[in-house]
Amino acid sequence: MPAAKRRSRRVGLALAGGGPLGAMHEIGTLVALEEALPGLAINELDGYVGVSAGALVAAGLANGMTPRQLCAAFIEGDGPPGDRVSPSLFFRPALGEHAARLARLPGLLAHAAAALARRGPHGRSTWLVALERLGEAVPTGLFSQAPLRARLQSVFSAPGRTDDFRALARRLVVVATDLDSGTAAPFGLPGWDDVPISQAVVASAALPGLFPPVPIDGGPAHPGRRWYVDGALKKTLHARVLLDMGLDLVLCLNPLVPFDAGALKGRQGGTDGRLGSGHEPIPSLVRGGLPVVLSQTFRTLIHSRLELGLHGYETSHPGADILLFEPDRRDPALFLANIFSYSQRRSLAEHAYQRTRADLRSRRGSLRPVLARHGLALDDAVLDDPQRRLLAGRRRGAAREPARPAAAALRRLDEVLTDLARQLPPA
Known about the structure:
The protein is an alpha/beta fold. The protein has helices at residues 3-8, 19-36, 53-62, 67-76, 95-117, 127-134, 146-156, 197-204, 240-243, 290-316, 332-336, 345-372, 380-383, 405-423; strands at residues 11-15, 47-51, 92-93, 143-144, 171-178, 184-187, 214-217, 225-229, 249-253, 321-325. The longest helix is centred in the last third of the chain and has 28 residues, at 345-372.
């Protein structure tokens, strides 16, 4: 390929959501991609778009943090102290939200009692109306984004970085959803770039039920106070943002896929028909109860939207190449992982790193011509090196992480939930 073509390539990265463990999966995948594609610096691409947890990873990359630095900050916890982001920051109780809702309860009870007292003999029963009114006392989220927002603001304000979209050297778009209109909010695009990056990230990751909607004030594109929630409510990837910028190659990462439990039956190579270490074989996911059924339903819905979007891009942007990287549907590791897990972050990131390397090896025949169109090539020596690891083993005598109460509580919660999960599938 001519040198002029190689210099003119424009590459972008689109990251989907998936909770804290989804972000850890994406970090492991990004390290594997950067090692296998020499000459392509993942933190020096032409554009980034992130949704939910993917917005956090995209914001770090756009600020110049390498995938290895993100791994040290989010997973290993041994990077510079100013860069470390503990998973416990995702799970601080939203005490302010709970207190505000509880304070409204007496007034709501009085209104409900008055409505019931006014019910006439021929009037419609107001029990349902009263219950709906009492619903206003239910908190909109369990966990607060404030600790994470403050930590990200500190990380992005370090020398050489910025918490301002307009000061970035590379285009970053963080997509959230306007709660009152249901429309996408592309923070970082013109008219949407006056919001701090840290605030846009927590808004994009505000999954309803887990986190309260995030209020954001001002701006020509969003006058007054608006409330924002998870950007995945509209689309899974929002890769069109990068394609509309005229990029030639878009790398897409999606950590959540439907799980194919039937493919494990009689399967060899380590799983032996079992859903992960310590789990009995499950002929059907219904055996796992409501949490497993809901997880599979959610994954299927968001993945079907992803497939529709990718097919649409082939028509709307025929000159661009899109490469999708996601877990194997037959791999139970990410599907069975507990989203609240603190201790699994290292093993899951390592798993994502190794599975991505295996995926690249199995697909290199089809990937080579696509990459060659953009002056890129896979490094076979790196891919075929069996000694490569994402994480080094713990050194003997290494100082342990400080036993913060929140971290200790999360570890204990992880142990309890893991024990419960092992009891779910009947033998």
